[in-house]
Design brief:
Layout (H helix, E strand, L loop, with lengths): L9 H7 L7 H8 L18 H12 L16 E5 L12 E6 L11 H7 L5 E9 L5 E6 L4 E3 L2 E3 L1 H8 L5 E11 L3 E10 L7 H8 L11 E4 L13 H9 L10
Parallel strand pairs: 8-9
Antiparallel strand pairs: 1-2, 2-3, 3-4, 5-6, 7-8
Length: about 260
Amino acid sequence: MAQGSPACPAHGLAEFIPLFCLGPDILRPLLRGDASSAGWVAGPRGARDGRTFRGHRRALTEKPELLLSAGRPIVGTELRVVDENDRPLPNGTIGEIIARGPQLMRGYWNRPEETAESLRGGWMHTGDAGMLDDEGYVYIQDRVRDMLVSGGENIYPRVVEEVLFQHPAIADAAVIGVPDPQWGEAVKAIVVLRQGATATEQEIIDFCRGKLGGFERPRSVDIVEALPRNPTGKVLTRVLREPYWVGQARRVGGA
């Protein structure tokens, strides 16, 4: 798919879906109704299986939220979402995604301790935080290592960031945990405003009410000119966290 290429009509979308296996990031503009950003696609017929094809067609005709999923496990592969003790979680609950199947790695080269940790219990622990729906579709939410713990509650920054991005004045956002004497960690939002837009800390916090649980809402907001990023564009949360955790005995919070 070529970003910025001439828009393809709806009948064209229906024609190319059988030819190519599309991922959620590619089709995300369609979920927003931005069909003009999607160009034509060509690809090998063998790059899909029947379930993938049916899932994409359903997403475009019946259930657009499927475009945000990573799909369902292929035949022969099992997926689970588990808590920190590897206990399976109910559908719709965020936890770590683990997988089991013949195509997964056998281990890290000359790193037996890391292999044992990643493959404990015969399941590969991906480090990705996500959830499964009742149809077996998996939705990746964040990285487990980025999770905050506030008052014993697990908080995934991306969940909070997605709400912040709904604010009309916010162009960019990152969420980190900062030390809190009562809760271990408190949620802090660091945002960049759109050019010419204005918003106060309290306005942004109030915007999150009703959209997030009380434990997930930012307790403070910093408004900055830009967020630090690495050459690939990933936000450097370590850089954002560092000033708040200097001198702390622990770099993570807890209950």
